[in-house]
């Protein structure tokens, strides 16, 4: 009995004892530990090491050159204008008989542009000519009478001395002679007035012919045959006031409005490079003529006149033009200093001097080099750099205070939030 009971106890399962170890569970545990170690390493690689300060960058641009080149100190826009332009009209009111101009036609000074109906002017001239002829014929009649009166007075003077005629008869002859002399003077003055009236009538006839006041190109034809033209607006706005518009193309220049805050950079005789909006690849040499001594209160601008040194038929009035006011060119044979342009945001003040941080690296990360700068003029939102930078280099915009020489940076695009 005892033996059997002991055997039954040996066959009983002890549920409190730990289960025997499994080889599969051991491999799962090792795999989980390995994954955790790899994740920790990746997290350290991403967040643990120093990736540098996030910055935005810009590229240095060249604005100077050799061989007498010059740098721009100010950019502006303006328009081509003509200093000599006229809308030609007749001096009198009349009906257009003939128009001899077309748009684009070249005219010389004195060329006939149009003619008006001369019927009234011709009639006035014919009347004035008749009046002059009548005055001159009256002079001839008075001169004949005066000649006879002078002979009678001379003969009677001899006879009265011989007491052959009375003194009263002689005095009457002298009075007749003097009266005829007065009539002759009046007739001569009337003839002069008639001649002046004829000259005025001739001008009236000439006023029916409209001539070009100067040589130029016709830019507008405003009247047609049969229309009524007048130097003054009349007829409720239905009367033409001009025959056409001509422009002296040799008087073309550029008119630019420069902001008050930048006008100090513009000087008379300063060289200018002009570019027409219609021909962006054509650089036209120009020069400042004058700065108009008056400001526009509403626009806060000052007007500048710029002379165009190149005469070309492609340049026409009212064309838009971009102008670059340049520094004085270096003398012939001298090397003009090369200069660069960077955004003003790339320039920082450190230790009392202007510096910039140049990025050394081709990818998104790199190190910076601190460079001292020698600055020139301001060009809009950019600054001219005379020394310290070269064209094509990359500089940091708005350098953080923590950025130092040799520091690491990470380049981000504009608009990206910095973490």
TrEMBL record:
Keywords: Coiled coil, Membrane, Transmembrane, Transmembrane helix, Transport. Residues 132-197 form a coiled coil. It is found in: Cell envelope. Residues 342-398 form the Multidrug resistance protein MdtA-like C-terminal permuted SH3 domain. Residues 84-230 form the Multidrug resistance protein MdtA-like barrel-sandwich hybrid domain. Pfam families: Beta-barrel_RND_2, BSH_RND, RND-MFP_C. The chain crosses the membrane at residues 25-47. Residues 254-326 form the CusB-like beta-barrel domain. PANTHER family: HLYD FAMILY SECRETION PROTEIN, MULTIDRUG RESISTANCE PROTEIN MDTA. Belongs to the membrane fusion protein (MFP) (TC 8.A.1) family. This is Efflux RND transporter periplasmic adaptor subunit. The lineage of its organism: Bacteria, Pseudomonadati, Pseudomonadota, Gammaproteobacteria, Lysobacterales.
